[in-house]
Predict the 3D structure of the following.
Amino acid sequence: MKSAITELLGIQYPIFQGGMAWIAESTLAAAVSNAGGLGIIAGGSAPIDYLREQIRRCKSLTDKPFGVNIMLMSPNAEELAQLVIDEKVPVVTTGAGNPGKFMAAWKEAGVKVVPVVPSVALAVRMERAGADAVIAEGTESGGHIGENTTMCLVPQVVDAVNIPVIAAGGIADGRGVAASFMLGAQGVQVGTRFLAAEECQIHPTYKELVVKAKDTDSVVTGRYTGHPCRNVRTKFTKKLASGERDGSLTPDEFEQLTLGSLRKAVQDGNLEEGSFLCGAIAGMIKDVKPAKDIITEMFAQADKLLGK
Ligand code: TUI
């Protein structure tokens, strides 16, 4: 399937695998890139040596383009931003902030820059700053989220900018891909579906939670801290939600409780203290399969729906 995104990046399918912190590492990213999408390694708040090793490992597993996500709230975002230049990573996506101060250096180094934007205003600013495309991410996404929905945000961003727009949030099959193209997007970013990829290295408990989730099992916690986060409903999210609702947890206490909770979910499968981030579409995901099958089935269905 050709689009402005496949042309821009030299990939076969216009799909980015979300740069999910603690989750998106070289095995998954290389599998997605080898299948014709754009695999992305999460910078998160990883130590620089770990991310360098992951980038080099990905290069050894694929000769196709791949990307790195720079999470801008990370205390070491600056050194990770330089690392992607030093390692000649072809594509950078950003999240959780405005990457303005890094744009000039990335553009000068020939890195393709694709920021995640939760609003039209940031999309316009990113286009002016030289972004090659933007990812318009709706509140259906997992993890740290904005307020607007994919259905509302994507066409408004498409109308506001002249660079290609990638839709994200709530997309896990060919219907979501086709709908995104109908909204004017030229590509999609998919996170939650890849949690249930065979190559995804998360704890088996995490995969099981995603596959077993029903439509009502994703919940948003932490709105009152200013960092709302979408997760699978667990004992831990219930505790957080009641603390938030009845005021028994101050925002600071809430943040203390969630500190390190993503690692506890991803590595330990810890249901008592872990944050199992996932998108609202988790209820539609019923099986674990190779990334290649996820992508080829998704685009076969989308092609059919789009009458190609
Ligand atoms: O970044 C994400 N999702 C994430 S990051 C993450 S790890 C984390 N760790 C500690 C605290 C918070 C998160 C888990 N999930 N998605 C992309 C995304 N970016 N969603 C929303 C935004 C965003 C929000 C505000 C992008 C730009 C922005 O700009 C505000 C400004 O400065 O103008």
